[in-house]
Write a structure and sequence with these properties.
Layout (H helix, E strand, L loop, with lengths): L1 H25 L5 E3 L7 E5 L3 E6 L5 E5 L9 H27 L10 H42 L8 E3 L1 H26 L1 H46 L1
Antiparallel strand pairs: 1-2, 1-5, 2-3, 3-4
GO molecular function: structural molecule activity
Organism: Catharus fuscescens (Veery)
Subcellular location: Cell junction, Tight junction; Cell membrane
Amino acid sequence: AGMKFVLQYLGCFFAFFSAGFLIISTWTDCWMVNADDSLEVSTKCRGLWWECVTNVFDGIQTCDEYDSIYAEHSVKLVLTRAMMITADILSGLGFLFLVLGLDCVKFLPDEPLIKLRICLVSGVLLLLAGLPGITGSVWYAVDVYVERSSLLFHNVFLGIQYKFGWSCWLGMAGSLGCFLSGSLLTCCMYLFRETSSGRFHSAYSLRKGYSSAVTVVTNPHLLPSQTATSKMYAVDTRV
């Protein structure tokens, strides 16, 4: 039982921070940052939704939002948005299901099998959340690196060159955390399924035995009336 609690709480810990990292990564503005900080008087960051410029000397930040979501954008930007939003939704649902499946939460306290299945659903959702999250963040980072390397290889200097920033790193960390928490929860389900099944069947047997005992206790009250009725029918038959 103690090991089960440890696995559940570890899964909850990683699921909470992983979902938070994915959401913060999706809605922050530093997926790409200018690589030549020493030569610039401002730091330029690009996110999935806007681009921000921060002055190095006074720290003043100005941000420009991208065009409407229906406008024409690069394939990299559109697919990364879609994958990260999907990862946010799945990880958020996985964390909510996990909270309901924890043994310390008074939700279906007499149904251990159902709570374990809720933990399994949570683990599956977190594993699924990790797939689009890691795909979107790694693909975005690799694309930025390849673009920068190709420009350097061809000796093309555009004035501003980018590398992937901390928002992209958060997306990778959140995705890996989803994989870890999902693995812990699915293992928790399969390791303790038989134990919970035994407890469920033993509780069912106790309830069944209790109901049988009540029936046995109540039956003696019915026997005299049944005996009298049978004797009456026997007298009528003889007549």
